[in-house]
Amino acid sequence: xxxxxxxxxxxxxxxxxxxxxxxxxxxxxxxxxxxxxxxxxxxxxxxxxxxxxxxxxxxxxxxxxxxxxxxxxxxxxxxxxxxxxxxxxxxxxxxxxxxxxxxxxxxxxxxxxxxxxxxxxxxxxxxxxxxxxxxxxxxxxxxxxxxxxxxxxxxxxxxxxx
Length: 162
Known about the structure:
Distance between the termini: 41 Å
CATH architecture: Up-down Bundle
Number of domains: 1
CATH topology: Four Helix Bundle (Hemerythrin (Met), subunit A)
């Protein structure tokens, strides 16, 4: 859906709908896969990668459209996403994937990010998007908070391997 998001960039309601639709179908896909026990290792790997790519693409485009205020928050969010992904990969190589499994804080982070991005996509400049910006700030705080939670959980193993 990333190319479709890019191609519809000049249509705010459409791009917001595409992003929201991708988020909703992603949630439904995960829910139904768990409910019907139709999970695969490949799907478990690919799903979070696809999610992060969609969020990253939207944040980069929003930063280009809205400037440094969104750019700074986007950089913080993307650094955390890459850092936690690397941490999860490193923990998995040692057989400790469960230490950094998705936690409640990570779910809060995801929901706040998706809502904030959808709102900012729907309200293009020059219109004020105060609600979207506040939501993106909350999402950034949730992002940092959950990232520290994962780091705290992994710290004993990180320290032991140093």
